[in-house]
Amino acid sequence: MEENQEENDEKILTANGFIAEMPLFVKEFIAGGVSGGIAKTAVAPIERIKILFQTRRAEFCSLGLTGSFRKIAKTEGLLGFYRGNGASVVRIVPYAALHYMAYEEYRRLIIFGLPTVERGPVLDLVAGAFAGGTAVLYTYPLDLVRTRLAFQVGESSKQAAYTGVAPSLCGIFPYAGLKFYVYEEMKRHVPKDREKDVTVKLACSSVAGLLGQTFTYPLDVVRRQMQVQQVAESMNNVARGTREALVMIIRTQGWKQLFSGLSINYIKVVPSVAIGFTSYDYLKAFLQVPSRDVTRSQVATNTLSRTRK
Question: Which whole-number Å values give the CA distances from 25 to 105, 125, 150, 289, in the listed order?
Answer without folding.
Answer: 8, 20, 33, 9
